Each structure stands twice: as structure tokens, then as C-alpha cells.
Amino acid sequence: MKKPKTALVLFSGGRDSSAAAVELAKQGYMVRLYTCQNGSELSGPLGDSAPDIRHRELVKAFPNNIEAIRIIEDKSYLIRKLGIEKTNVEYVIYPLVLALATHSFAVRYCLNHKIKIMASGYSGHQSKKENKYIEQRNDFVNLTKKLLKEYGISYLTPVINKTELEVKDILEQQGISSNSLEIKSIFGGIPYDIKKSLGFWKASLPICKDFIKSSKQK
Description:
Layout: E1 6-10, H1 15-26, E2 30-37, H2 50-61, E3 71-74, H3 76-82, H4 94-113, E4 117-119, H5 124-127, H6 138-149, E5 154-156, H7 164-172, H8 194-215
Parallel strand pairs: 1-2, 1-4, 2-3, 4-5
């Protein structure tokens, strides 16, 4: 029997990343959940955080396709490099800071564990909300795909074209809670200037690439 391909899913414990995990499990992938936090778990002291709760539900629904161990890494170092150190020096787009930091850490993990597929719960319905969720716009999703391709990693966005109701339905069909459990990022849902945002992305890539190169295992 052919061994299933492993897909690393960027996992906040929210509805969209959980639905992405469901869709890949249904397609036969071995799903490894990857939580990239900023200084603390997202968030709950006794296993009652959103990632903990939804991880248990996902494993119960797909015991053969969702790995029982969730990977947790702290991205605060790169957030400081990309965002805090640049504040008052240049135009900083904080949702892109979080997106670039998370994906850079995940690329490093994939390279060190020979994983060729990464996925996120980016969803079109988020990017259309008041035009604020810039990291989930198609143009920035394509920029992310381009970055990952440089490292031989395919980038999947299985719920990018799903509505909020469709995402909820994906979860409910598997007995997974569809209510909102996630804590909102303090940097999420803020206005942006698209031209300056593209400039920030371009200026940030060398920092991300240097981080990936310096931290890759020999």
C-alpha cells in the first residue's frame, strides 16, 4: 500500500484552518498540524485552547489521517525582525508580518523534515471582509506560493473559494464544532495601502530567506 503524502497545515485552531485540515484528510493526505504562536499558546492553560480543542476533534474524526502530535513553534523572533524593529522607520503592514513569519518558520520546518506540501486555511470570505485581510487576497496568496516554490514546497489553499457557511458545513459534517473558538490577532483586520503593502513584502523577503537559510539543519 502506497504511503500517503504528508501535508503540513498551518493551524490556528480556527474554523478555516480546521476545515482545510478536513479537506486534505478527506483527500487522503497525512495531515500534520503546525501552530506558529507568538510567545504563548493560542491560548488556554489546560488543553482548552482553540488549537487543542479542534485538534482533538479532528483526530477523532480522522484517526488515520490527522497526526496525534501537533507541532508548536514560537515565531516571536521573526515578528520582531519584520515588524517591531521597523516601526517608525518604514511602513509596516502587521498582518503581513504575521503571515511572513508564520510561513518562514513553516518552510524551515518542512525543509528540516522533508515535507513537500504546505497548506493554510486562507479563505476568500475573509479577504473580502471590509477589504482588510490583506494576507488572504489572491495576489498575496500567489506571492506566498511563489516564495514556497523556491524551496520546492507546494502550497495548497483548500478552502480559498469557500464561503463562511460552506466552511461551517465542512466541519459540521464531520462532527467538528463550527462556532468561533479562535482568539483574534491584535494585528488582524486593519486597513492597508496596497502599493505600500507590496513594497513591504518585497523588502521583507530577504530577512525571511536569511532566516530560513540560517536555521536550516545541515
